[in-house]
Structures are given as structure tokens and as C-alpha cells.
Amino acid sequence: MASEWQPIGAALSMGLGAVGSGLGIGMLANGALQSLGRNPEARGPVQQSMILAIAFTEAIAIYSLVVAILILFVL
Q1: Rounded CA gap, 13 and 74, in Å?
Q2: How many structural domains does the chain have?
Q3: Tens digits of residue pLDDT in 25-54
Q4: Domain that holds residue 27
Q5: Cβ contacts of 20 within 8 Å, gap of 6 or more
Q6: Residue 66 falls in which region: left (phi positive, over 0), alpha (psi -120 to 50) or beta
Q7: Nearest alpha carbon to residue 27 among 59, 65, 53
């Protein structure tokens, strides 16, 4: 019975993690582009902050992938 729900749980885990990560990265890029449009001289610090924030946001998708793999193969 439990094995029937494992693929659904893994798909939900990966899907929601990817959607959340994608929305977060989109919002980060939007904010960075708006700030660069207002102050083009701040390119360096804005770009560094954006890349760091994107890396942290992408970690959420990686964690959800790990959870999906655990659901499929361990539980």
C-alpha cells in the first residue's frame, strides 16, 4: 500500500521544490534588473549578491531532489 504512494510523494516533493525555486530565482532576477536599471554603476555588488542568492535558492531544489530520491529508494 505504501509503495503505491511513493512515486506521487516523490513527484510532489520535486515539483513543489522546483516551482518554489523557480519563482524565487525569477523574483531575484526581477529585483536585480530593476536595481540595475535605476543605478547601473552598482553592477558589481548587485551581481555578486544576486549570484549568491540564486545559489541559496537553487539549494532548495537540490534538497527537494534528495528528498524525492529518499522517498523512492529508501522509504
Answers
A1: 15
A2: 1
A3: 999 999 999 999 999 999 999 999 999 999
A4: 9-73
A5: 60, 61
A6: alpha
A7: 53
